Each structure stands twice: as structure tokens, then as C-alpha cells.
Amino acid sequence: MVAAAALGDEGAFEQIYRAHVGRVYALAVRLADNPSHADQLTQDVFVRTWERLSTFRGDSSFTTWLHRLAVNVILTDRRSAWRRTRRITPAGDLIDLEPEAKTVPPGLRLDLDQAIAGLPPGARTVFVLHDVEGYEHAEIAGLTGIAVGTSKAQLFRARRLLREALDR
Amino acid sequence: MTCDAVRDHLDRYQTGVLDPADRDLVDIHLAGCADCRADLESTRFVAGQLGSLRREIAPSVDLWAGIAPRLTPQVRRLSVPIWRLAAAAVLLIAASSAVTVALIRRPRPEVTAGFASTEARYEQAAFEVAGLYQRARDSLAPETRLVLERNLAVIERALGEARAALRTEPANRAIEAMVVAAYQRKIAFLERAASLDRDS
Amino acid sequence: MPVIGLRSFLLVLIVAGPAAAQRKQAKTFSVAPDVAVRIHNLVGVTRVTGWDRDSIAVVATIPPGGGSFFGGGAGRFAKLGIEGQDPSLTGPGSELDVRVPRGARVWIKGGSATVEVAGLGGEVEVSSVTGLVQLEGSPRVLTVESIDGDVTIIGAATVVRVQTGAGVVKVTGARGDITVTTVQGPVTIESDQLLSARIESVSGRVEVRAGISLDGLLEVTTHDGDALLLLPASTDARFDLSTVKGTIATKLAGQPPVPAGERSARFAVGKKAGAGRGAEITVRTFSGGIRIDSNPKGN
User: Fold this and answer.
1) Residue range C38-62, pLDDT digits in tens
2) Contact between A89 and C140 using a beta-carbon 8 Å cutoff
3) Which of B173, C51, C215, C231 could form a disulfide with B72 if both were Cys (CB 3.0 to 4.6 A apart)?
4) How many angstroms away from the CA of A92 is the closest CA of chain B?
């Protein structure tokens, strides 16, 4: 099916879309700064997949390849979106500059996805990529442009914040 | 063992797969370090929660309608051996060591219908924003209205040309992308025009 | 680029009298270094200059019928400007000369007023209708929204957002993330190292004379405006060019020219691009001509 789609068969590509949209959308919702962008980002991912299909060499599973491409598209979009925000001023390492986690009204029970959504962007990115998607810190550093040490620090920060948000 | 080193080991420590020598060192460190104990607790806690995380989330609307119009024809240069390819309606031109594959695009009526609905949605959004501008228009200075509407005319002309081109070449992805871009420009401009009278 | 020096600043100068054609008013107030300042002047000239003091100093020169001055603030918020001006934007213009701390966040509203900004390093936002907007310096974030005004930006701003209609846009020296949108206004971008640039116009001609960083991105989209890219010979990028009714002409070292009559072309120039990485350069037009040349002056 991948081969057929790589040759331009849109019907085959649509089947690829249907098979993988759930995973890609979950990634977009969790990684994007604004969950309402997840629709747009998911579409961008699949358009980019279509454009890059001929570069898939079959040396990893298609799912892994698609996934990495999705992470790239989403993070690149976030980098641009981050820079478009007027109220937050980026300088240098964008993912490092961020506000504190949003506080939760007491008595409100969260599920894990809600808690993840409440994390500051840098911590959320590293947490989603490491604990949810299974990337190593070195890979995360390569994908995001942050230092490996920063990635490790962000991960533990995320875990601490999640525990505070959920363990009440 | 330093805190940094301990943190590197924490994941394996809490799943019990750390080798005994390292485990002892981590134990010793944890006994005297509240920070790292807190890190361990949150690592454990989060690991316990992760099982409940959905691996897949279905979008609330079918996103394919927004994807299909953007799939422009790709000239594929595939350097994988031919036996790996499942050929389907393909034209092959053999070249020295690589295989160059040219596409035959088959117009897909259902995809064109998909774009028609995309276009209708944009038209509706443009109509609504135009309404907002009409309401704000009277409070603008005449000179301002003039420059706004002169620019709008240019945007409208471009949109008209793109749509006309699409009618003569339906399912041309490049033209569809131009139509979408033209609509987005119109909507963005009208939004700005409609908010001009407000002191932000 | 001239640096506004430490000229002595007149703090209080009120000229009043039956024969005076203009009123001058001045005000100074202490503020925080990252104060948010709103400056309002629809007709005339507004000059905002950064300085190394934790205070705002403003001198307003107002002709008869030119409105009245207001201003005040402390700590992290200040607001000043001219109110009561002729709403048709054609009345007599008032002059505002404002000094603000270099790290201030500045928001300037103009109509037909010329806006000149220099020496600021924080965030700058200008909202204008037809007035010329000119900025020198390196603010972190610069946003200019105009309807028809010309916009000229010189300096190494990090994030630049410009929107105008028929105005002429020139951005020189910016090295970060640039977005420029015009309707008919021509756009010229010059930079030795662009990180990310998205230029859009309906009918304006877009000219980019820039080096693109290795993981950079350049996107140019027009309807019938021509797009001309002059790139250094060392450019390492993947190109994606397409037009519906226009023409594509390329003259890049190490790359055969795109054959005449082609409506789309995708190719890679350079080592990293050849390996699937490198910068990404995308140009899309409806009927505008696309031309990509090696910049003879580039490295």
C-alpha cells in the first residue's frame, strides 16, 4: 500500500491516512501549543508525508518514519508560531523561554491529557516526546534544538508538575 | 553519585532493571537527597499514569477533505529495486541504475467534490467577515475607506482569476491551492479592516 | 546607522501667547525599564527613540486645530499622545518626540502620521493607515500593520511582521523570522542570513536578496506579482517552484536551468540539500514570473 501510494495512487494514500490519523492527531494535540491547531497540523503532516513518500527507504517501519516526520512538521510549525506571538519574546533557545505552568483550581480533578495540556510548552514537548513517544534525549535534542541537559531538566520538571496537578 | 547521574539512572531504577552496583549507589544518594527523592516519586507516579493514556485520538471531523486538495502531483524518483514496488497504472521509463517513475493522474470526482465543499466554507467565512466590515465601515474616515476598498478590489480580482482558472481546470491541485490562498488573504484583510475603528 | 546621542533634553517648554502658531508641551515621568507604552498620534509625525534612562520624556508640538496632548504613567504602564484630531486624517499634524527606555514595549497608533522609531530593543508594534513607518535598530519583536503605508526596516530585528496594502516594504538586515504580506506593494528583503521568511503579495513584486541559513525556510507566494530571488552561490537548499500561468527561469551554479514552459520545478542545490536536508525555498505564483539567480555580489 505504501508502495502504491508512493507511485501516486491517492486511494492508497487515503488508506494510509485512515490507518495512521489517530496516532498523528494524538501527537498533534499533545505537542501543539494550541490544541485547536491540531486539525491543521495533522493535515500538514499528511500533505508533507505525501510529498516525501519517495524518500522512504524501508529501512525502518513506515510507522516510525511517518511518526518522525510528524514530530518534525509539528515542531517546525511551533517554532514559527512561537515567533509570531507578540507577547512572548523569543531570543536564542526558544523552547527554554516560557511561562510557569497554568495553575488548576483546587478541587478540580484532571485526567492525564488535561494535565499534559497544562504544562509549559518546553516541558510538554520533552515529556510527550520522551515519556509518551519514547524518544531518547539525544534524539529530542536533535529534533528541537535544545541541549541534552536542558531536555533532561525539562523532563523532570514536567514529571514534577504533572504529579502536582494530578496527585491531589 | 551526583544528582545529574542519579537522574540519568532513575527510569531504569524505578522499573527495577538497573544493575546492582549502580542501584546501590543510587540508593545511597537518595537516602540523603530530598530533591532526587521527589524526582523519583514523580517518575513513579507518572509512569503509573501513562498506562491510561490513549495512543490514538480520533479528530472530531474528517480531515481528509482538507488534505486531498493539497496533494499536488509528485514526480517520483525511486531508488528502490523494482521488485519492491507494486505497480498499479504506472508508466515506467528505465534509466541507467535508477528507475524513474512518471505519474498518470486519474481525476477523482469525489476529491473535486471535496474541494467544492472547502471552497463553499471559505466563501461563507469571507461573507461573514465582509458583513463585519460593512458594519464597521461607517465609523471609518473616508480616506481610510478608500484605501481599504482599493486594496480589497485587488484581492477580489486575484480571487476571481484563480476561481475562473479552476473552472477551466478542475482538480488542478496547484490552482486549488491558489484559490485557498486568495480566500485566506481576503478573509485576513477584511478582518483587519473591520477592526480598524477599534482602539486596540 | 546614526546613533541618537545624548543631546540635552528640554524638559519644560511651553510657548504660549496670542501670536504663537504652535503649542509645545513636555512631560517626563519615571517608569520601569520594561514599561508598556501606548503612543497615539493620527496626523503628523511621531518619533520614538530608545535611551538608557528609566523614564519617558515627551515633547509635543501642536498647531492650532491639531488636537490636544495627553500623557501619563508610572511603573510598567504609560500612555500618551494627541487626541481630538481631525478624523479625516488630513487635518494639521502634530509632532510627538518621545524617549523611552530601550527595553520598553512600545505600541504606536498612527493614521497618516509618519512614524519613526530608533534605538529600541524590546517589542515594537505600529498600527498605521497610510503613514510612512520607518524603523532603525534591533527590537526583539517588530510588528507593523498598515493599510497603505510604506514600511522601511533597517537592522537586525529578530521577529518581523509587516502587513500593508499598496505600501512599499523594504526590510534590510533582519536575521530571524520575517513575515511580510502586501496586496500591491512591492517587497524587497535584504539579509546576509535569513532564518525563516514568508513573503506574500497579490500583485506586488517580491525581491529577495539574501543568504538562507542551512535549516532555514523561504516561502514566497504571489498572485500576479513577479518573484525574484538573488541568492549567494553558496546556497544549499531544496527548491520547490510552481506557477499556474507564469514562467520559471533559474540560473544557479551547478544546476541546469529549468526548461522554458515548465510550470513547476523541484530540485536541490548543494551538498546538504542533495542529502534531503538543507534550506527549503518555496515559490508559488498564479501568473507572476519566478526568477532565481545566483547573486553575483554574494559569497
Assistant:
1) 999 999 999 999 999 999 999 999 9
2) yes
3) B173
4) 24
